[in-house]
Amino acid sequence: MEPINIVKSVYAPLDRKNVDTDQIISKEFLKRIERTGFGQFVFYHWRFNENGQPNEDFVLNKPAYSGAEILVAQDNFGCGSSREHAPWAILDYGFRVVIAPSFADIFHNNCFKNGILPIRLTEAECDELLAKGIEQAQEIEVNLEAQTVTTGYGKTYTFNIDPYYKKMLLNGWDEISLTFQYEDHIKAYEEKRLVFE
Amino acid sequence: MGKNIIEKIWEQHVVYREEGKPDLLYIDLHLIHEVTSPQAFEGLRLAGRQVRRTDLCFATMDHNVPTKNLPTINDPIAKKQITTLADNAKEFGIQLADIGHPDQGIVHVIGPELGLTQPGKTIVCGDSHTSTHGAFGALAFGIGTSEVEHVMSTQTLWQTKPPTMEIRVNGQLGVGVAAKDIILAIIAKWGIGVGTGHIVEYTGEAIRALSMEERMTVCNMSVEAGAKAGLISPDEKTVEFLRGRRFAPQKQFDEAAEYWLSLTSDADCAYDVVLEIDAAEIEPIVTWGTNPAMGVGVSKTVPTKTDYDNEADRGALEKALQYMDLKEGQKITDIEIQHVFIGSCTNSRISDLRTAAEIVRGQKLAPGVQGIVVPGSWSTKRAAEEEGLHQIFLDAGFEWRESGCSACLGMNEDVIPSGERCASTSNRNFEGRQGAGARTHLVSPAMAAAAAIHGRFVDVREFAKQQA
Ligand code: SF4
Fold it and tell me: Domain Aconitase A/isopropylmalate dehydratase small subunit swivel, which positions (chain A) (predicted)?
């Protein structure tokens, strides 16, 4: 996994609540058996009209937001199905950071495992980011080490993050190899584990 | 102070604990299906890793298996996923209930059926409705593919202990009101975010009165309430359900049962949050919108903007009604449907099929309505056929299919056409869930069956009276 620390980029304001994983990556695109290549399908039914033409009104299709590595949305981002294709698609499209007032649990966990930084800001802070970003595309700087989001309009927001996940993201660690270091504990547990025949 | 069942199971499974880190939890059962596993196997192969405990894994095919004309699989990509799982199971030595195998079925239906699901176990699957297994007093939750790979390699997961929530359902359900209505009512009352970040235990008289299959329906939709998991403390019903099942303990069954019952939440335990609802106030629910909280009692009407006190909710209402092609204030019983889907891990078990068949018996599908019944597993299908339920559905004009997820998510050919409306016993009514542009109304099996006969929603409580 690629380490994350500072991400400085224009952000895409997605002014919606309850963005579910079906919307992030629609089920007709789940049939690949690889992890990559999902970015082209992200938010497909919002990005494209029924005739397959790009929907010019959708934020990701506006040139001002192209190349955004940060996505800002409303409450309960990533709810619905547990498909990890959703974070894969988001990452593959080019996002490294998602900011929202709250995330669905599974999605939130999946972000860390795939090198995406999910940031919880307050609703007021997200509303402000969304309003400013919709008014005019602008850059922000996310600093994981410092746990800050510095805006171009003179405000700096701070966020909390589990120290364990922070370390993982900062170092780009693969969780499985970390867990292998606990093999002795796992073995010991298995020896005393309750099993009924 | 005593402990609740969530705390008891959690503590039992901690392999390693350190300040400032999530706990390393042991996983007792890992269920695997074709959609969320290929990338995990790919990861193992790339890293040269093995599956640590093949004896604690069980795989099946459900999400995109065809439910008719087997064994032909027309969709080449679905076929690829299916053969990939078969190859992976073989390569890594994992038990598989393949297409055509007598144990095949929706993963959350076969786990309990085979007795793999047991109280006190930690159970994971790369599927959000893994919460279903909580009905047995297991700590069961959905995981993503990276976690699937992590469990395969280490049989553990790093997990931060979530806060606990009790949802107490007091009193008794009215006649014609189903387990599905309990959970839809809970979500309608408190919203799809109510359980976010929590593990929920369902308690109270109305929950204790439910059969095991009904409990599965309630726990299944915990995730629609935002919860990580939902469970119900085991009791004698749990024990009796498991007795004699193939993967349940045999020689030591009594010891196991004693242990299971000891997991039940202590009378003096506490939860971080407690919510209460009165079963008597619950009526059969129909969802009118595009998330599972957008539901009302069948005797009611679609909400109007004046029902909401903020712009965001009013906006969500407008968007949902536009997608659903419904009007504010429209009567639920005036909504006409063209499709009925009886199936999914929420409601495709034998008792669901019996309930629906009882309503359908001797009747015909309303003109213009298409109905499919998709049993949750082969074994459910066989049991239903032994009772003659399939004939009741066939006589009424339903199609009787092979088991799988089917129109619950429309990954196979079972999709609802754009702009058409489906009364569905599944668990999700998101935009496009059952097919691009399809409009889903979530209901109980009885409500779906009654809608099939009438071509629109009817109050099953009335229907039952008329038939009597
Ligand atoms: S029946 Fe539906 S909800 Fe259940 S596992 Fe299959 S797709 Fe998921």
Answer: 3-123
DSSP-derived secondary structure for B149-203: HHHHHHSEEEEPPPPEEEEEEES-PPTT--HHHHHHHHHHHH-TTTTTT-EEEEE
Beta-carbon count within 10 A of A1 CB:
17
Contact A84 B12 (CB under 8 A): no
Residue with tokens 């919510």: B275
**Interatomic CA distance for residues B59 and B116, integer angstroms:** 12
Q: Mind listing the pLDDT tens digit for each residue in A42-100?
A: 999 999 998 889 999 999 999 999 999 999 999 999 998 778 899 999 999 999 999 99
Among residues 158-187 of chain B, which lie with CB inside 8 Å of chain A? 158, 160, 162
Q: Which of B442, B381, B379 is nearest to B407 (CA)?
A: B442
Question: What span, in angstroms and rounded, lies between the C-alpha atoms of B213 and A188?
Answer: 36
- Ranges assigned E (strand) in B385-438: 399-400, 421-424
Q: Which domain holds residue B239?
A: 6-274
Chain A residues with beta carbon closer than 8 angstroms to that of B26: 186, 189-190, 193
Decide the pairing of beta strands B370-373 and B399-400. Answer: parallel
Last residue of a domain, one of B250, B274, B298: B274
Residue B284 has pLDDT above 70, yes or no: yes
Q: Is the CB of B223 under 6 A from ligand 1?
A: no
pLDDT of residue B467: 60
Indicate the class that CATH gives domain A6-172: alpha beta
CA distance B423 to B432: 14
Structure confidence by residue, pLDDT tens digits, B148-174: 999 999 999 999 999 999 999 999 999
- What is the distance between the alpha carbons of residues B107 and B61, in angstroms, rounded to a whole number? 8
- The CA distance from B450 to B332, in Å, is 14
Q: Is B411 in the pocket of ligand 1 (CB under 6 A)?
A: no
